[in-house]
Design goal:
Length: 641
């Protein structure tokens, strides 16, 4: 058996070396490359309806950020005050973020899907004094929580509010000198709080995570070195995940510090055309984005009546990806003759098209936010688009573990990022300590419950192999304990079933029950999100398509871990109370809403198990085949007569 470790530390690669706050990294970057293109900003559309993009240099951006910071200071913002930003992913979000940091303020992002009651709670808890809003509705929500429209600026021109784009073009009414601005910026040190991020929470109420300037500096400097092949000034990216999420924001700040060109996209329906316009070298996604890309390819293949060919092409890509494990992504290991021939065929039919959909210039994809199924990572590697999977939390300033270029392992989230120690507790929980780990929450009680012996308790279950690679197996709070006392981690089974394109989420159920059942939430592609209730739906054709996935998932686990019954359900996946901004299901909320559906699964009247249904279908098909064969034999015999 392979050796497993209880603890592994990756050495720190870069010390701060004179960097005393996060904004020092930006001062250095502006000095090094003032004319480098830092952003591409939408400026209109051409005759064909494609978006046109304008370049913004490093110097132009930081000049605008300082101009906005002067307005913040003139409005009464002092070092240590809290400013909130609530809006879609766009250039002005970043402008407000950097301006706030330059003025010495603490930035408090608020998800743009947050309800007014949530906005009010965050404003009160963080002591927010001013805010920047993305839309008129968000401006009203923030103005209501802050007590007036005069305390809110907007990212786009909105009646009754001042727009940040207009502010940067003029001096504030109360002049702010260069010395005053620099004094505000340099008032912050590495140990000072740079941001408070309220976790989206899949199993609990949001908590205010405090991240310091030192947390960000350590992550940006060290990951910039460990992943320099991906993140560098020769590269470009499109950011479309919410900047309120620490992963997207961390990548944005890293791009600013390293010089990587960035374009923002708030309308995710335009992802594919934007890839073609920008042609990025690197993108960051959550697993569901990859699944949607392949589902779209599958749908097109079905329309062209080549669905079976696509299925084989995807399976072939997985086999190619498996052979490529252990090789650098730029290397092409020798394939068996038959597999090489298939790759050549499918390269022309499918693989090249997938790369073109992503702009044709992608070197790597970073995937995080949720567990990525190994077959998906292997398939994309087979397509010629290697995926870097990582793992982290808000409390760890994004990643605490990540695969590195030249050492990608499907199914693993990689080794600890530089300077980080990962420990596996006796209960199998992943613990973390390092320069990126938050000093704690706003609430001291939350901090006391989350830290043990200097390590953050992540709430995730995992294991370390002999090389220090971390593999996750689920959430500790998602563990199921049956009435027979059997402890079960359902994440593996759920992930296997979620590979079916029509299954948005698979949720195993069985706490205090004699056996396991599951609710499969149907993926909605037609915009019909359903109501607030969790409804069981009857769709025999779709259920028949999903059955093989269920059977295969059952075969990969022990007998007591197998799902005996299941139901297909409809849920409102557009509800932010049910699904987090990073597209993770809030399991506790879902199970509460699904009580009636769960009780129906455990009715006394016996129902056939998945295995019995599959056996019955196989028997019926065998019977049909036998009848056809018998009929043909009878016909042939009659002909001979």
């Amino acid at each position: 058996m392979p050796t497993s470790l209880r603890e592994y530390t990756s050495p720190l690669l870069v010390e701060p070396n004179g960097v005393e706050r996060l904004t020092d990294l930006f001062v250095n970057r502006e000095s090094e490359a003032p004319g480098h293109i830092a952003f591409q900003v939408p400026s209109g559309t051409d005759a064909a309806g494609a978006t046109t993009w304008s370049d913004v240099t490093t110097k132009e951006f930081f000049t605008s950020a300082r101009a906005l910071a002067r307005h913040f200071i003139a409005a009464g913002i002092k070092p240590g005050d809290a400013i909130s930003i609530m809006g879609p992913t766009r250039y002005e979000w970043v402008l407000a973020d950097i301006a706030a940091l330059w003025s010495g303020a603490i930035v408090v992002p608020i998800y743009d899907t947050s309800a007014p009651s949530q906005v009010k709670a965050i404003v009160e808890d963080a002591g927010i004094t001013r805010a920047v809003a993305g839309t008129a509705q968000q401006a009203e929500s923030l103005a209501g929580a802050l007590g007036g429209a005069d305390r809110v600026w907007t990212m786009e021109r909105t009646p009754g509010y001042e727009c940040v784009s207009d502010l940067v073009k003029r001096e504030p009414e109360s002049p702010v000198s260069d010395a005053d601005l620099e004094s505000a910026r340099t008032s912050r040190m590495l140990e000072d709080i740079a941001t408070i991020v309220y976790t989206s929470g899949t199993t609990s109420d949001p908590k205010g995570v405090q991240l310091t300037h030192g947390n960000f500096v350590a992550q940006l400097q060290n990951i910039g070195v460990s992943h320099g092949e991906v993140l560098n000034e020769r590269g470009s990216t499109i950011l479309f995940l919410p900047l309120s999420h620490v992963l997207a924001r961390g990548v944005q700040l890293m791009c600013l510090a390293l010089g990587m060109r960035v374009a923002h996209l708030s309308d995710t329906s335009r992802i594919i055309p934007t890839f073609t316009e920008i042609r990025p070298t690197f993108v960051m996604v959550v697993p569901r984005v990859l699944e949607k890309i392949l589902n779209a390819v599958a749908a097109q293949a079905d329309k062209k009546h080549v669905g079976r060919l696509w299925k084989d092409a995807r399976e072939t890509a997985v086999r190619i990806g498996m052979i490529g494990e252990g090789f650098h992504e730029r290397e092409r290991p020798k394939l068996p003759l038959r597999l090489a021939a298939k790759r050549a065929l499918y390269e022309r039919l499918f693989y090249r098209t997938i790369r073109r959909l992503l702009g044709g210039n992608i070197h790597y994809i970073l995937c995080g936010g949720a567990k990525l199924h190994p077959s998906l990572a292997l398939a994309f590697r087979g397509f010629g688009i290697p995926i870097i999977e990582g793992y982290g939390l808000t409390e760890t300033t994004a990643p605490i573990a990540a695969n590195r270029p030249g050492d990608l392992t499907a199914g693993s989230v990689g080794v600890p990022v530089p300077g980080t120690t990962i420990r596996i507790s006796e209960e199998g929980e992943v613990l973390a300590k390092g320069p990126g780990v938050s000093p704690g929450y706003r609430n001291a009680e939350h901090t006391a419950a989350a830290y043990s012996d200097g390590f953050l308790r992540t709430g995730d279950l995992g294991s370390l192999d002999s090389s220090g690679r971390l593999t996750l197996s689920g959430r500790s709070k998602d563990v199921i304990v049956t009435s027979g006392g059997k402890t079960i981690e359902p994440a593996g089974w759920e992930g296997a079933v979620e590979q079916h394109p029509s299954v948005a989420y698979a949720v195993a159920v069985g706490d205090d029950r004699p056996y396991l059942t599951a609710l499969l939430i149907q993926q909605s592609e037609d915009g019909d999100n359903g109501g607030d209730d969790i409804e069981i739906i009857e769709n025999p054709k779709l259920i028949a398509e999903i059955l093989p996935y269920l059977e295969n998932a059952n075969l990969d686990v022990s007998r007591t871990e197998r799902i005996k019954k299941f139901a297909l359900v409809k849920a409102n996946l557009a509800d932010p109370n049910l699904v987090t901004p990073s597209l993770k299901l809030r399991r506790t909320v879902f199970l509460e809403k699904a009580k009636a559906a769960i009780e129906e699964l455990y009715e006394k009247a016996p129902k056939p198990t998945i295995h019995e249904i599959v056996k019955r279908e196989i028997a019926e098909k065998a019977s049909e085949l036998k009848a056809k064969t018998s009929g043909k034999a009878h016909k042939d015999a009659s002909s001979n007569d």
